[in-house]
Amino acid sequence: MSSRSRQSAARTRDKWREKVWYQILAPDYFDNKEIGTTPAGNADLLIGRTVQPTLYDLTGDFEKIHVKLRFKILEVAGQQAKTTFYGHEWSSDYLRGLVRRGTSRIDWIGPILTKDDYLMRISVIVFTITRAKTSHEHAVRKAVEKVIRAHAKKHVFDELVQKVILGDLATDVFDAVRKIIPVRECEIRKSKVLKGPEEVKTRRARLRRGTASTKEAESSSK
Predict the structure, then answer these.
(1) Measuring CA to CA, which residue among 179, 182, 168 is closest to residue 100?
(2) Under 8 Å CB-to-CB from 215, ≥6 apart: which residues?
(3) DSSP of the chain, one letter per residue?
(4) 191 pairs with which residues across the strands?
(5) Nearest to 54 by CA among 37, 35, 73, 40
(6) Strand partners for 37
């Protein structure tokens, strides 16, 4: 090995020695469970970084290994990196395995606003036992939307995330949909946090100003 190569290798080793290992924790509503570790030379570099454990990592239930979660690091205290929920998604392979002949797959996707002004996008998937008519599909989507929005309206972000991830919300959707058509499976297959409360409030204020300006312009033109 040349002297230049040895110097480069030594510098690389020194950089790694300078790094500190941080414990990444799930939010309070998931009992601050450790979901990973990561090295960093500066704690500030961790802010905004995402980590993707599975629901199995949080619950120990191997049947939930197909549920992939996303958490974003918000702050670092000591050698612990604290996170917030950023979204989740079921693996495509698992979903494909739920498809059956002579049945229907009905999807609903929509934005929802929690009680404490978190804007999220929720994706629901319903597998029927028999082939669904178009009228059934419309009725199912309306029922899904009614349940999802009702929960979003009465629950704050932390509460809704728990209901989404742990299956309580899917159970309520299942109970509503099965009154329309026999259902084999109903799951919240994907979610994503689009905006936090501050961004939502800023957007509202901007829209109010825009509406006020439009009304003033209309009044002056009369």
Answers:
(1) 182
(2) none
(3) --HHHHHHHHHHHHHHHH-EEEEEE--GGGTT-EEEEEEESSGGGGTT-EE--BHHHHH--GGGTTEEEEEEEEEEETTEEEEEEEEEEE-HHHHHTT--TT--EEEEEEEEE-TT--EEEEEEEEEESSPPPHHHHHHHHHHHHHHHHHHHHHS-HHHHHHHHHHSHHHHHHHHHHTTTS-EEEEEEEEEEEEE-HHHHHHHHHHHHHHHHHHHHHHHHH-
(4) 88, 122
(5) 35
(6) 23
Q: What is the mean pLDDT of each run of 10 residues along the chain (222 residues)?
A: 49 64 94 92 91 94 95 94 96 90 95 96 96 96 97 96 95 97 95 93 77 53 56
Measured CA angle at 117 (ends 115, 122), to 5 deg: 85
Structure tokens at 139: 């009725």
Q: What does the alpha-carbon distance between residue 122 and residue 172 come to, in Å, rounded to a whole number?
A: 15
How many other CB atoms are there within 10 angstroms of residue 189's CB atom? 22
Domains of the chain: 13-97 (no CATH), 100-208 (3.30.479.30)
Which residue do the tokens 């469970």 mark? 33
pTM of the model: 0.81
Q: In sequence order, which residues have a C-beta less than 8 Å from that of residue 12 and are 6 or more positions away?
A: none
Q: Find out whether 70 and 54 touch, Cβ atoms under 8 Å.
A: no
